[in-house]
Amino acid sequence: MTTIRTQPLTADAFAPFGDVLQATGQPDRIINAGFCGRWHDRAHLDFGPDGRAGISIFDAQPRPLPYTCDLLERHPEGSQAFIPMHQNEWLVIVAPDAGGAPGRPLAFLAGPGQGVNLHRGTWHGVLTPLHAPGLFAVIDRIGDTPNLQEFKLDPPIVVDR
């Protein structure tokens, strides 16, 4: 099995796969009579012509590192945002497309306060919290047409720090 090492989740490193959602630097706007900073329009949400945005709540079981990853998936009809409802680090696995199959995966360690928005069609691992609770708000496409493609990794990869 191949082992890949995690890297910190940064906007530049993650850009080919999606958007990093975090409140860093100065807010774009101050709202609510000066009591709230707004980091405005931080993700490109894309739900295709036959879908709409929906917000769901996921509660995933934590997985330890090293983590064996044997499945990647993608959503060809819409983007998918994961916003943690906790302050724990979590694992984000992505891969470039290589002719309709995943290319070499990358692993990012998302820190407290970091979420991601995966671009439409981005290969990614399943939701992988490293600690309980594994609670996330997920903004993704709701629609009647199929929006899931899965790819079994054979052999699997191992992800570690």
Descriptive overview:
- The chain is an all-beta fold and 161 residues long.
- The chain has one domain (2-160): Sandwich (Jelly Rolls), CATH 2.60.120.
- The chain has 1 helix and 14 strands.
- The strands form 3 sheets. It has a 6-stranded mixed barrel. The protein has a 5-stranded antiparallel sheet with strand order 2-10-7-13-5, with no helix packed on it. It has a two-stranded antiparallel sheet with strand order 3-4.
- The longest helix has 4 residues, at 11-14.
- The radius of gyration is 16 Å and the shape is globular.
- The two termini are 16 Å apart.
- Count of alpha/pi helices: 1
CATH superfamily: Ureidoglycolate hydrolase
User: Overall 3D geometry?
Assistant: globular
Q: State the order of secondary-structure elements, H for helix, E for strand.
A: EHEEEEEEEEEEEEE
Helix content: under 10%
Task: Report on the biggest sheet.
Answer: 6 strands, mixed, barrel
Uncertain stretches of 5 or more adjacent residues: none
- What's the β-strand tally? 14
Radius of gyration, in angstroms, nearest whole number: 16 Å
Name the beta content range.
over 45%
Structural class assignment: mainly beta
Integer average pLDDT: 97
CATH class categorisation: Mainly Beta
As for the number of domains, it is 1
**Gap from first CA to last CA:** 16 Å
Entry keywords:
about 160 residues, mainly beta, Jelly Rolls, 6-stranded mixed barrel, 5-stranded antiparallel sheet, 1 helix, 14 strands, globular
